[in-house]
Amino acid sequence: MMWTTGQNDVIRELGYQGVQVVHDEILDRYGVDHTLRAIEVQASRIHASLKVLEECPECHAVGVRINRQSGLCRCCTEAAHVAEEEAFNALLKAEAEGCDGGQEYDELHRRWAQLRQQNSRLRRKHGLKGKRERSL
Q: What is the pTM of this model?
C-alpha cells in the first residue's frame, strides 16, 4: 500500500506519542488501516522517531522530565510554587495590615481623630462636659 505525504506528516507530528496513536490517527483521518509494523518501517524510512516522549499537561512541552508529585515539567512546577507563595504572601500581608495598619485602619484612625477634634471644639465653644466628667 502506498504512503501519502499526509500519512507521513501524521507520523512526524504524532510519533512522540507512540506507534498506536499514529495508527489510530491515520485510520481516523484517512481511513487506511496500516499494521503497526508497517508504520514502524515507514517511520524508519522517513527518519521519524516513534519513541514515546512525555508531554507536560500545562505547557505541552514534549520530551521534558515530568515531576512525579506535581505531574508537570520543572518550569511549570516552579511557576506553580511561585504562584502558591505569592498567594500566601498576599494573605499574610492582608492579615498583618488588618492587625497593625493598612488602608482600612488609616481611614478609621483619620475618622476618629476628626470626630475627636469636632467634639473638642463643640465642648469648648459651648462649655460642655467631656467624656471623663460625664462618666463620674
A: 0.54
Q: Which residues of 11-37 are buried (b: 16+ CB within 10 A; e: fewer)?
A: beebbbbebeebbebbeeeeeeebeee
Residue found by looking up cell 512525555 in the block: 54
pLDDT tens for each residue of 83-116 = 999 999 888 887 777 666 667 778 888 998 999 9
The closest of 4, 47, 48, 53 to 26, measured between CA atoms, is: 4
Spatial distance between the Cα atoms of 31 and 24, rounded to a whole number of angstroms: 9
Give the residue from 48, 49, 72, 46 showing the smallest Cα distance to 61: 72
Helix (H, G, I), strand (E, B) or coil at 54: coil
Residue type, 40: E
53 alpha-carbon distance from chain centroid: 23
